[in-house]
């Protein structure tokens, strides 16, 4: 497969690049910082310089052309304020989806976050609320797009613990908890392979089910 990862120097993105490159897929990674190109190459991907808060949809579409699927793995990250939750977690996601449509790329995996789409729980501050709102609006935008075979993946709290290979992956609600970034990357790699799993919103936690079985259970009956 030919995959483009938006936000290609992210922690999940680099893990996903390695998995995809190891199985023989071609990976292009959109990064905004030239200092990140070497890490992206080390992970087996081809870096493409593109700041998703500056670029237009036409430029991004040019970077996506020919791909089978796009993975939106960018995020404003910890330490950013409410404004960048809007420009990255919502704005860059919408831009990337626009670009995918223009480029004729059908597959689109959006890394969202557990709790998106619900009113944010109180007491966690305005930046958290902006984050949950931005993720929810990016999801809503994607669900309206008829030309994309979208998948929305909502991991719980991310950790850098070693991979477990076992998850709970299902439409919400599945409860709350944590999931390793390695396991998130492995789930995305498996979902990219399961072309008949599409237009689903999926919560993801570490759990009891082997990743291949969790993805197989999402496939239309009889496959
Ligand atoms: N932390 C959690 O517990 C949690 C839970 C659920 C979901 N998530 C979501 O999971 C996703 C991936 O998480 P992660 O830990 O892998 O994220 P990460 O390591 O923070 O990576 C995010 C990437 O987005 C890139 N980015 C930011 N602004 C950009 C721009 N304008 N143009 C291009 N790239 C840009 C960053 O690049 P720079 O280094 O250049 O800024 C960074 O490489 C994020 O969307 C996050 O919100 C997180």
Describe the overall structure.
- It holds the Pfam family NAD_binding_10.
- Residues 7-193 form the NAD(P)-binding domain.
- This is NAD(P)H-binding protein.
- The protein is an alpha/beta fold.
- It has a single domain, classed as Rossmann fold, CATH 3.40.50.
- It has seven helices and eleven strands.
- The strands form two sheets. Strands 3-2-1-4-5-6-10-8-11 form a nine-stranded mixed β-sheet, with helices on both faces. It has a two-stranded parallel sheet with strand order 7-9.
- Helix 3 crosses helix 4.
- The longest helix has 22 residues, at 82-103.
- The chain is globular.
- The mean pLDDT is 97.
- The chain binds NADP nicotinamide-adenine-dinucleotide phosphate.
- Residues 7, 9-13, 30, 32-33, 51-53, 73-77, 88, 92, 111, 113, 155, 157-158 line the site of NADP nicotinamide-adenine-dinucleotide phosphate.
How much of the sequence is in beta strands?
15-25%
What ligand molecules are bound, each kind once?
A: NADP nicotinamide-adenine-dinucleotide phosphate
Return the CATH class.
Alpha Beta
CATH topology (level 3) name:
Rossmann fold
Question: What coarse outline follows from CA principal-axis ratios?
Answer: globular
| Strand runs, count | 11
Low-confidence stretches: none
- Please give the share of residues in helix: 25-40%
Order of helices and strands: EHEHEHEHEHEEEEHEEH
Radius of gyration: 16 Å
Secondary structure category: alpha/beta
Tell me the strand order in the biggest sheet.
3-2-1-4-5-6-10-8-11
Number of helix segments?
Answer: 7
Instruction: Quickly count the domains.
Output: 1
CATH superfamily: NAD(P)-binding Rossmann-like Domain
Average pLDDT works out at 97
Can you tell me the CATH architecture? Answer: 3-Layer(aba) Sandwich
Distance between the termini: 21 Å
Main pleated-sheet profile? 9 strands, mixed
């Amino acid at each position: 497969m030919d995959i483009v990862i938006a936000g290609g120097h992210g922690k999940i993105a680099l893990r996903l690049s390695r998995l995809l490159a190891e199985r023989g897929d071609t990976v292009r990674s959109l990064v905004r910082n030239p200092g990140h190109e070497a890490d992206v190459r080390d992970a087996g991907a081809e870096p493409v310089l593109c700041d998703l808060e500056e670029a237009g949809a036409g430029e991004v579409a040019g970077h996506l052309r020919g791909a089978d699927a796009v993975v939106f793995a960018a995020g404003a990250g910890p330490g950013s304020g409410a404004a960048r939750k809007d420009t990255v977690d919502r704005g860059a996601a919408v831009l990337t989806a626009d670009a995918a449509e223009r480029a004729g790329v059908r597959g689109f995996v959006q890394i969202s976050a557990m709790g998106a789409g619900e009113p944010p729980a109180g007491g966690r501050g305005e930046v958290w609320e902006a984050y949950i709102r931005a993720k929810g609006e990016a999801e809503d935008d994607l669900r309206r797009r008829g030309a994309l075979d979208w998948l929305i993946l909502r991991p719980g709290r991310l950790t850098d613990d070693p991979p477990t290979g076992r998850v709970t992956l299902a439409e919400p609600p599945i409860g709350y908890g944590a999931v390793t970034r390695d396991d998130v990357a492995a789930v995305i790699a498996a979902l990219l392979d399961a072309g008949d799993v599409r237009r689903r919103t999926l919560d993801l936690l570490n759990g009891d089910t082997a990743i291949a079985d969790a993805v197989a259970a999402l496939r239309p009956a009889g496959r």
